[in-house]
Write a structure and sequence with these properties.
Layout: H1 24-30, H2 39-63, H3 68-72, H4 75-93, H5 101-115, H6 119-132, E1 147-148, H7 149-154, H8 157-167, H9 169-182, H10 196-220, H11 222-248, H12 263-269, E2 273-274, H13 278-283, H14 290-295, H15 304-310, E3 319-320, H16 322-327, E4 333-335, E5 340-342
Parallel strand pairs: 1-4, 2-3
Antiparallel strand pairs: 4-5
């Protein structure tokens, strides 16, 4: 099955910087006023995310004794709390959660044990992602793989098939997250020759995760622990991958070769604003306000809505609702001639 076998939801093009003039460089300077984290607020955000997650995990493990399907009903909620822990880890990687570099790093490392994401490895690859967003010559770190129409046409049929399978929603949102968090993160893939630090990050996270899981394994056994932990992890991972996809894969996303690329334009024009309902906005750490995040990544996640209130013009840039965002899953290639992302069918492939 390929993407073209699925029903094609309409993709609504959001407003972009062409209709709402914004000077990215000046805006980046203005956004510096929001970059100062508030330690008490950060501690509160961590507490109201970590404690409910641990409580739900324990509750689900106990509830399994009364029936697995009853316990499974609470899994999506636990997954949302785990996703929010990942967002806090993400802020630590940007140095925006606490004022202290050491504090950010150690909180990030602890949370990386729960999210199965080695902190130092992820921080490095994510920094490369931010440094090269929208740059056609800097793809490959922290991105959803994307080919141009020309690159796809130049591939042999087997590699084309592999790319089609990779871009299929069932792989992107199902098999892909499982592979990423359960297998790929166990080694410093992409950083294996970059020094001992990343090996320590990956192997240390693996070891501590095993030690943490030893307690529920001892209390409840392997079967119950697996039936509780994996659904929570995979529900959080799938939603997280979907969010990451929507943030940079949309019809009018910014892509340029290195010679024409601008960090500021790429940050603002190459990142979306996913307007989520208030509850989902809270659980996702407002990461849907992604154009602001890429323009000034040191803004704490809980201050991103404040930016939109102070700069209302940003509410109309690359704006999507949930339905529109789901429609972008059919996009697969960057069309150099049309200057936009297209599906395989639109590219006549």
């Amino acid at each position: 099955m390929t993407v073209t076998d699925l029903p094609k939801p309409a993709v609504v093009h959001p407003q972009t910087t062409a209709s709402t003039p914004v000077d990215p460089r000046q805006l980046a300077r203005d956004l510096q006023a929001f970059r100062d984290p508030k330690p008490v607020r950060s501690g509160w955000e961590l507490a109201i995310t970590l404690l409910p997650f641990l409580g739900l995990f324990a509750l689900i493990a106990v509830a399994v004794q009364a029936g697995y399907w009853l316990a499974l009903a609470a899994t999506p909620l636990a997954g949302l709390f785990l996703l929010r822990l990942f967002i806090i880890q993400h802020d630590c990687g940007h140095g925006s959660f606490l004022r202290s570099r050491a504090g950010n790093d150690w909180i990030g490392r602890v949370l990386g044990v729960l999210t199965l994401t080695p902190y130092d490895c992820w921080r490095r690859s994510h920094a490369l992602h931010h440094a090269g967003t929208g740059n056609l010559d800097a793809r490959g770190f922290g991105d959803v793989d994307m080919l141009t129409v020309r690159e796809y046409r130049e591939r042999r049929w087997l590699r084309r098939l592999g790319y089609r399978l990779y871009r299929h929603p069932l792989v992107l949102l199902g098999l892909g997250p499982a592979y990423l968090f359960l297998l790929r993160h166990r080694l410093p893939i992409g950083l294996m020759k970059e020094g001992w630090r990343y090996w320590v990050s990956a192997m240390g996270s693996n070891l501590v995760t095993a030690l943490v899981l030893a307690l529920p394994l001892w209390l409840f056994g392997f079967g119950v622990t697996a039936l509780v932990f994996f659904p929570i992890l995979l529900s959080a991972a799938s939603l997280g991958v979907w969010l990451f996809y929507v943030q940079h894969q949309f019809p009018d996303a910014y892509w340029e070769p290195r010679a024409d690329w601008s960090f500021y334009e790429a940050a603002l024009e190459g990142s979306s604003y996913l307007a989520l309902p208030a509850v989902l906005g809270w659980f996702t750490g407002y990461i849907g306000i992604h154009h602001v995040h890429h323009l000034s990544s040191q803004i704490p996640f809980y201050r991103l809505p404040e930016v939109l209130e102070k700069h209302p013009q940003l509410k109309e840039l690359n704006r999507f609702n949930v339905v529109q965002a789901c429609g972008t899953l059919r996009l697969a290639l960057w069309d150099e001639d049309r200057r936009g992302m297209v599906s395989f069918r639109e590219a006549a492939l």
